[in-house]
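Researcher: Good morning. I'm working through a list of sequences from a screen, and I'd like to move beyond sequence-only analysis. For each chain I'm collecting a predicted structure so we can compare shapes side by side. This is the next one on the list. No need for commentary yet; just the structure.
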Amino acid sequence: MKLCEISANLKLIKESELSKNKRRKLLKQNIHWLNVLKGNIRDNQDKLLGLPKLLDGANETITHFGHRPIKFE
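Model: Good morning. Structure tokens for this chain:
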């Protein structure tokens, strides 16, 4: 499932000691994929129980690095 991979990658980015440029590049890639999946996430948000927690964690990491959170509503 792509969303789980994105969530895991975001957690690794936050906890890793990668260079600033590498973290920025990986973060932008994951934000891109979240935006691609946004429509499907919005449609299925009520069907999957752990999805809101997963999305909150992703947005927490995104805002940690100074980006705007992604709205899925």
